[in-house]
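Example 3.2
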Amino acid sequence: MDETLHQGLLRYLDAASLNKLSQCRVGIAGLGGLGSNTAMLLARTGFEHFVLADYDSVEASNLNRQNYLPEDLGARKTLATLRHLRAINSQINAYCFEERITKTNLPELLRHAQIWVEALDVPESKALFVQTALLAGKNVASASGIAGFGGTCLERRTLHKLVLVGDFVSDVTQAPPLAPRVMWAAAMLADAVLDMVLQETKKGV
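Structure, written as tokens:
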């Protein structure tokens, strides 16, 4: 980890916890508003090893809520995300998966990490990913209901190895995906991952 970031984090986390975070590999399926911002938040918290899965490239319509800049337009989301993460910590490494996730390739993809953030757009893909990951014994953080503005506060629900965040009501086909609620959900996903990794330390185990 870059020394400046390391020293800064040591003001808030003990060395054992920080080492645990830096050694953990987290997978992020989908690098849109949820995934790209969750990755950034995890990098700022001390995570250094990622699996970044997305087959898409950055478009102008992404810039209102995703962790990209105008100079990223046209770049693969995996590579743009990795570039931004390394601007935070040059020691970050990632396995980049640039194919559409399918029932066929998902089991092999899941092998690369124990903890996964499900940040896909299509409902059928979201369900496939969560169900397959849980059956494989993975820890999963997922979001449902982040559209619009105002409205119902986002909540967190924990079901064994699955953490769900969102308002569980709003639909992006009925209301626009805007930065405040999308980034709010991304922060909750990152917090859920942090809790998954440090919960034993938190409990004093």
